[in-house]
């Protein structure tokens, strides 16, 4: 069996990333920022959240390394940091490869048993 366990550092990134994305509002923020930068007001509008609540959600995403924010005058602009997701993508790719191989081996085993029944 192939070990698909992440290293300690990667495990930390995965835990932080998935923890940040576990909230539906934060997931929606990331989805929105995947299209373009947005102000805090633009991010708040569809969720009817107060400015402090949106600041808290964005702060979790910033702490997880998924989002950056910068001030432009009096406006706070947020942007996605897609590079942070590369560790997650790599781990999911390894996991996908593992499961594809497992399913392929199972299919070979089932096909082999079917051949034995015909003899």
UniProtKB/TrEMBL annotation:
A Gene Ontology molecular function term of the record: DNA-binding transcription factor activity
Q: Per UniProt, which keywords does this protein have? A: DNA-binding
InterPro entries tied to this protein: ArsR-like_HTH, HTH_ArsR_DNA-bd_dom, WH-like_DNA-bd_sf, WH_DNA-bd_sf
Q: Name one Pfam family in it.
A: HTH_20
What are the residue boundaries of the HTH arsR-type domain, all occurrences included? Answer: 6-100
Which PROSITE patterns does this entry report, sorted A to Z? HTH_ARSR_2
Stored SMART domains: HTH_ARSR
What PANTHER family does the annotation carry? SLL0088 PROTEIN, TRANSCRIPTIONAL REGULATORY PROTEIN
This chain belongs to the protein called DNA-binding transcriptional ArsR family regulator
Q: What is the lineage of its organism?
A: Bacteria, Bacillati, Actinomycetota, Actinomycetes, Propionibacteriales
């Amino acid at each position: 069996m192939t070990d698909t366990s992440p290293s300690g550092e990667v495990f930390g990134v995965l835990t932080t990333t998935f923890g940040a994305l576990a909230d539906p509002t934060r997931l929606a923020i990331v989805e929105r920022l995947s299209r373009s930068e947005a102000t805090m007001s633009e991010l708040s509008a569809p969720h009817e959240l107060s400015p402090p609540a949106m600041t808290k959600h964005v702060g979790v995403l910033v702490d997880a390394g998924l989002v950056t924010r910068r001030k432009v005058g009096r406006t706070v602009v947020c942007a996605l940091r897609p590079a942070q997701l590369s560790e997650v993508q790599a781990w999911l790719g390894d996991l996908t490869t593992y499961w594809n191989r497992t399913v392929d081996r199972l299919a070979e085993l089932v096909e082999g048993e079917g051949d034995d029944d015909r003899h």
